[in-house]
Structures are given as C-alpha cells and as structure tokens.
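Here is one chain, start to finish.
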Amino acid sequence: MTDPDLSELLDLALEAARRAGALLRDGRPADLGVAATKSSPIDIVTEMDIAAEKLITGFLAERRPQDGFLGEEGASSAGSSGIRWVIDPLDGTVNYLYGLPTWAVSIAAERDGERVVGVVEAPMRRETYRAVLGGGAYANGNALRARPAPPLDQALVSTGFNYVSDVRTHQADVARVLIPRLRDIRRGGSAAVDLCDVAAGRLDGYYERGLHPWDLAAGDLIAREAGALTGGRPGLPADGDLTVAATPGVFEPLQALLEELGAWHD
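Its structure:
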C-alpha cells in the first residue's frame, strides 16, 4: 500500500460499501417488491438496488467529483480523472428479495482502464473482502489464499444461470455434463460472493456466462490477488461470454472443458 491514491480509493470503496450494506441489511422493507425487470420477467430490480446505488454514487461523487461511474442500475459517466468506479449495489437481488443471505455490495475502482481496487461487502456473512492491485486480498483483515489444487474430479465448482430461458437451458446442459466430472457443483446466486469464495478457498473454481462488468470487477481482482487464476475463453480475459476463476491446476482443465462444451454460446 505505497501508493496514496490507491489507499484513498480503497478507503472510499470500503466506506461506500459499508454504508450501502448497512442500508440494505437494516432498511429492507418487510413488503419488498419488484420495482422493474431487465432481460426477462425474472431478472429483477428492487427499490433497494436503486437506493443503494444512489447512496454509493452520491458518496463517491461528493468526495471525488471528477471520477467516472459504471453502475448496474444506470449510473454512467466518463469522468475526467482517469478513475472509474464500477458498482453493483446489490449482487444477488433474487436472494435478497427472498430473504436468502447470499448477496453483496460490489465496488471496484479502475485507473486508466485497469482494475486497481476491489471491495465486496457481504453483510449477512459479516465479511468484507478487499484487494488492491499487487497488494494481496483480505477478508476482515485476514489474508486470503486460494486452495491447493485438487484433481478436477475432486473440485468443488460454483456456477450461475442466466435469466433468459434459451440461455439457461444450454447452461443446464453444460452443467449436466460437468457434474460427473467434478466433486460437485454449487449455485450460490451472487457472482461477487462466488469469486470471493474462490479467493477464500471455499471453492476450487467458479464459472458463469453472461456476467456484466459490475458483476465481476471487484471479485475478479480479489480472486487474482488471492492467487487464483481468472479469465474467459482460452487466451481471453473474463467477460460476458465466459468468466472462469479457479485455483491454479483447476483453472486450466476447467477452462478447456468449458470451451469444449461451448459454455460461452447457445
């Protein structure tokens, strides 16, 4: 942490995520409902997603008015400082709607297009994950390290499913073929939390098709700083076609198998 700019960005991301997490945890109305839908009728936005993003962007803009934003619920501005905040105010919205605990606030800072800070606040776990480029990854102050690699057939791998019917049908076909080749598959419902679980050694790997930059920006950095490998299709970075994160030794065969199975297309 020798770069004061990164220290400042990390402190701001931590505080913004803490405030948004508290709002979501303590302010969830008993009659919470769906405020809007996105890609399909089951791809939802709640009033709390919107409120949390407004809180985060307001807090950051007040302290760094020249920065840009990219947020899931519509925040978008180029800025002039070279810093852009990539924000998912509530990753795991369906879990949150149903009262399930696996959801998080995800905030990343990019400097000149490179991710340099990532924070994932998981209030119901009482865990705050953070990473700075080149500085390692931590949860509640404890250093994170990805698990030693097991053979692929002993790997515990998580995934997620799209909200568009045709896409999720193919994803289910891929999972059906994968399951006999792994220890098991999990489906947590939050990409940010899954990526942090890879970083924390709770999963050997994770993959998903259809993520957006705000879904993976912070978690990808946290996983990499904990010693995991991340990417997309072979030779490409993690993106909307495919995101793969895994401990070294699991990453390569898992990525190759996903490519063989066409996990990145219908």
